[in-house]
Write a structure and sequence with these properties.
Chain lengths: 136, 390
């Protein structure tokens, strides 16, 4: 065991448990409304388009593009300091929704808005794997 | 309900010392700001029947406004604390003005303060502020508050060709005004090169693109327009107020380059019956330099994508088309967190009283103050003037 401070672990809630269970199995799951067919992220108990409550989980393709990004030079806390410089980005998934993530396995200095990316998962614990993206 | 245009006035305003003020805790700073505003208005605490505060990060209270009322030993009939800052400050002022206009109370004290510099460690301040992110879907990725704003800066640069030099010009302009303000925390003139050569925090934002970390408090006193002339100073009337609320988390924003300032500005100008061309002085929320450019565009002072050139050309200097952030703003005057927008408001009062000395905008009659909170999330715009029927 080390005394390294821990990163901020997500704590699943009833409406997000299925999402995190998917990540644990290396699957990016999105909600789709049964009534209006719209995808949404983050997970909710109701559809952001029609307010319906019939939502199904669909495995996303995992592809998207960089909508915007930054290179973090000063970490938010000691737990992230070893990762500096790291990329925080907004990824527009091909299904439509946007999610925040890291772009990894890349040279941050050459990353561009619009670059295509593919989901990868970083295992943080037995229960939590974090969806990140790498350039295609 | 009819418009509150011209029905409510600010009749007292004051700041505490700002910057590093270790001799006061956050609660004491809030009380000190209140005492100074009461003194400015020439009234006693017993004439206050409404109290608005915001919570503090350094000394939080579950019932903050009640705690301040208790500390002062006042017993208001309208008592509310805002949980957040930025646009929320002007939202609660809007609500307090409606409370006065409806007769729910007569005289409202709004006092806000915090001690981010002396009351928290640098790491504590960063962690608390970055908790504005989504706990499951944003915070794990390690974004700082500057990083969240860097996301919109990069999007604006990519869409409109905004340059790092144009972002820097916002910081340079703020510092030039702060140099004329003896109360400002940072008063040494800086150049565009100084900004570009300062440490990169989150690309494209350098250290000097980011606002300060400060202690400080400010307070104002509001009352009905028909009582305003009973007070010693020139009243400052609320002519327009409007809000726009787009999202909380930046990853959920519908647009990264256009904000709900479009709605808040349209509603405020609509109530006031005025337009951008009528504004003599503007206080534009400047937690980070790109925020100013987006707000100038969304409020209608510039076309989309043109605010960078507008600032770079000097149009927001004291002798420009739109003198802006005349006290030095959050970038150079002070930024104690939640109370930040209050200093823009007290600066508007100072300008419209024609008491601003070396930084006075000549013959200023009408001012606009805009604030946003979250990450471009919650927007509120106020329009204020020297005449109730401007």
């Amino acid at each position: 065991m080390t005394d390294m401070p821990l990163k901020h672990f997500p704590r699943p809630t009833p409406e997000t448990e299925a999402f995190w269970e998917g990540c644990r199995k290396q699957e990016l799951l999105l909600q789709r409304c049964v009534d209006c067919s719209e995808f949404q992220f983050y997970p909710r108990i109701s559809c952001t388009t029609c307010s319906g409550d019939k939502l199904e989980w669909v495995k996303a393709g995992g592809q998207g593009s960089v909508r915007t990004f930054t290179i973090v030079r000063r970490a938010v806390s000691e737990a992230y300091a070893a990762d500096v410089p790291y990329v925080v980005a907004l990824i527009r998934l091909d299904e439509g929704p946007t999610m925040m993530s890291n772009v990894v396995q890349c040279d941050p200095e050459t990353l561009q808005i619009g670059d295509p990316v593919q989901v990868v998962f970083e295992d943080w614990s037995e229960e939590i794997s974090i969806p990140q993206f790498r350039p295609v | 309900m009819e418009s509150i245009r011209g029905q409510v006035a600010i009749v007292g305003a004051a700041d505490t010392e700002v910057g590093k003020v270790p001799q006061y805790g956050a609660t004491a700073l809030c009380v000190e700001a209140a005492r100074r505003a009461l003194d400015d208005a020439g009234i006693t605490k017993d004439q206050i029947d409404g109290l608005v505060t915001c919570n503090s990060m350094a000394e939080p209270h579950m019932y903050h406004a009640e705690a301040i009322a208790e500390y002062l030993q006042i017993f208001p009939r309208y008592c509310v604390s805002a949980a957040a800052g930025g646009g929320t400050t002007f939202s609660v002022l809007h609500q307090a003005a409606m409370a006065i206009a409806s007769g729910a109370c007569d005289t409202v004290l709004i006092s806000m303060a915090d001690s981010l510099r002396s009351g928290l460690s640098r790491e504590q301040a960063m962690t608390i502020q970055s908790s504005t992110g989504h706990p499951q879907f944003e915070i794990p990725y390690g974004a700082t508050v500057p990083a969240y704003y860097a996301l919109i800066a990069n999007a604006h640069m990519n869409t409109y060709g905004t340059t790092p030099e144009q972002l820097a010009a916002v910081a340079v302009g703020a510092r030039a005004h702060a140099a004329l303000n003896g109360n400002a925390q940072m008063r040494d003139i800086i150049s565009v090169d100084d900004v570009l050569n300062s440490r990169m925090i989150a690309d494209p934002l350098h250290l000097l693109d980011c606002s300060l970390v400060s202690d400080g408090g400010a307070a104002v006193i509001l009352t009905s327009a028909d009582r305003a002339s009973d007070f010693p100073h020139q009243p400052v009337y609320v002519l327009g107020a409007g809000e726009g609320h787009g999202h909380e988390h930046i990853s959920q924003a519908q647009s990264l380059t256009t904000s709900a300032a479009v709605e808040s500005g349209r509603r405020a100008f609509g109530m006031a019956g005025l337009g951008p061309g009528d504004i003599d002085v503007a206080e534009i929320y400047d937690c980070f330099t790109p925020v100013v450019l987006i707000e100038l565009e969304d409020l209608g002072f510039c076309e989309k994508g043109e605010a960078g050139a507008f600032v770079e050309a000097g149009e927001t200097a004291l002798d420009g088309l739109l003198p802006m952030n005349t006290h030095g703003g959050l970038l150079s005057h002070c930024h104690p967190g939640n109370p930040g927008s209050m200093f823009a408001l007290t600066e508007v009062v100072t300008q419209l009283r024609h008491d601003a000395g070396a930084r006075q905008v000549k013959d200023a009659e009408v001012a606009l103050a805009h604030a946003q909170g979250g990450i471009m999330s919650s927007h509120a715009t106020l329009i204020l003037g020297r005449e109730a029927n401007a």
